[in-house]
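Help! Submission page says 'invalid entity' but I think these are all valid:
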Amino acid sequence: MKEADEFHAILKDPVSYGRKMKEQGRKIVGYFCSYTPEEIIYAAGAHPFRIFASGENIHFADAHFQSYCCSLVRGALEGALAGNLDFLDGAVFPHTCDSIQRLSDIWRMNVKGPFHADIVLPVKLDTESARSYMIDVLRKFRKDLASHLRVEITDDMLKNAIGTFNTIRRSLKRLYELKAENPGIISGRDVYAIVKASMMMDRDHLTEALPAVIGELEKKKGNAELYAGKRIVLAGGICNHPDIYRIIEDAGAVVVWDDFCTGSRYFEESVKDNADPMAAIAGRYIERPVCPAKHAGIFTRGENLLKIAKEKDARGVVFLFLKFCDPHAFDYPYMKEFLDREGIPSMMLEVEDQLPSEGQLRTRFETFVDML
Amino acid sequence: MNKMPEIVLFFLAKIKKLALHFKKKKKMKEIMMVYYMEAKSARISGRKVAWITSGGPVEPLIAMDVIPVYPENHGAMIGASKMGTDLCEKSESMGYSSDLCSYARSDIACATVNGGPIGGLPRPDMLICCNNICGTVLKWYEVQARYFNVPLFIFDTPFCHVGYAEEVQRYVRSQLDEYVLFLEKACGKKMDSDHLKAVGKLSLEGQRLWQAVLATTANSPAPMTAFDAFYHLALIVTLRGTPLVIDYYTQLLEKMKDRVARGIGAIPNEKYRLLWDNIPIWPRTRWLSEKLASHNACLVADTYTSAWCGTTKYIDENNFFDSMAEAYTRIYLNIGVDEMARIVLEMVDMYKVDGIVMHSNRSCKPYSLGQYDIQKIVEKERGIPCLMIEADMVDERSFSESQVSTRIDAFMEIIKERKGA
Ligand code: SF4
Ligand code: SF4
């Protein structure tokens, strides 16, 4: 759909987009991972810009990372060392996995941006002391960022920011729901581009652009033709390969939901109204579906995936992992078992920087879709 | 009461006999054997068993008379007895990626078949996971908590990229109380705080002794090698907080001091001194030590075994419990790469080494990612060469003997040239 064009354009060339914003005098703070409190960055008057792998051949990052490090971490450092992220006023690293942890160190030692923040969140999210520690950490980040950007971040600014991000999250969720209810209404590739570019786009513009997309879809949904493809759910960390959606659709299936950090984990749960905005932001992280690098019980991720699959009436699940990603690889066997027990077929695809050849992928997906 | 099965009586008698035996001699093998036998017969003797990560706070367990068992130490044994590759393959057939930590992989597989050199670890009554070494242990212990269906306590030690923040101290300190409550519930009895104090004292003393043992290799020739340290390490990992450790390392220290006094070196003709970085390549330690000795090179120190005594400076002798929070949080693997590099430089100076051998360990990302930067810093600051060996601590499929051999030869050539020998 044409409303998705501007999102595709950003994804195609995030560097130019970032530089253009910079030229307009904006402060830009790069970040990793869905546990970054974007609300605080936005409240500080800066623009939160999610960093992904640069997608280029690894040249500089090889001098810092061994080959057994995931492509997200290597690719992100590559982008920074190649000078592609020169528009950033700082970078924020929430603590998640062992690789991101070292990326932060190596970034701090070699990229030397003007502002470097580690947000070392608790690893467990299910105790009271972890909650109050998380609030402490968020407070500290608020203070550090304010003093670095020489601004004041008031509670009112934070509440305003929380409102903006809740709106964005609600819109993205609505987009997913529309797709799940009428899979033929918008292509998987468009949904992918919209949600991912939302993490880089100017948020004030985004709060207008998303409703425009959704408005179009709401209009279309009454007379959308019934889509006959088999309904599947994607699960994993991040997806860097929009082509996957097309190949899946060609194989006769359609993605109706996902459990990705560049997907549903990004928009699930709102920040509640709360006298203390930091406690409210922390509250969302605690209630939100958890990432495998965090702990909220030993069955939560399996149960959540099962819930998604059932609620969305999915016939099967495709696990999509980055090679060398430990947290996801550890959870895979039990999550698969959860699905097996309920008779939900699944397949697993592990990708590095590049997708396997299209022919090979097509065969794998066709075989899988045929048995659904 | 039921009559105890004969085999059990035999087992218990054997433990007793061995215990008496090593009271006199204190050989590592026997100590470890008794330790594992005791752990394996815990169900009979009515004691509880906890699985705990290698960097975890073990003292409260000892104070509660719980037997701590270390899956990582078990992993090292599996690796050293060359049984790792099989078990790793087995875990892969269970769906675990071959890129995961091989301690975790072999342990997860081993639990289901009771394999490995000692027929598997005893079933845990509880799991204690401290993430001060990595995030892998969190995922690994979740797997085992599901498998054994026992309570899991996560002792969360936030990573210290730079410094140690006060909110971290608050959080970790409060978890110490939670930990004690967890143990009291699991054991159905109260913690005896005097006992805990005593255990803390022993733990600190053990760590200091271990530190002193390692420091003897600052002498030339070094009275022992890092390979010896890999071997003697088992006690400070598994039994710290017990008097056994004190006796053992006191004797070892005397022995090393005596060797130093008499100028006896660990290798016949020590000419070059090297520092080792990362976990040993367990199935290949012997090969490697012979290979290096053939070049008259001695691995005099390493960053790995010193991790169990690297934070004594944070421990308050008179308040072990409170100071544990900081000591367990600021260990070697839980700090930034630049601080690690600083520690490596200190070791380079203290042990007067001519070069560094870095094991780029596919299994251990927190240890290995960052090595390239440390290498550059060392080369720049001290002008000594670093050799990078890519391998794995347990899984032999990642080891190419011919390749490593050639690289060591080339590396030793550089060192010889530099030393003008
Ligand atoms: S969680 Fe996985 S994909 Fe994400 S940075 Fe860590 S290893 Fe890479
Ligand atoms: S990843 Fe490294 S630190 Fe963690 S358990 Fe494995 S070897 Fe140990």
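Support: the input was valid. A stray whitespace character was the problem, and the output above is from the cleaned input. Chain A has a mean pLDDT of 94.
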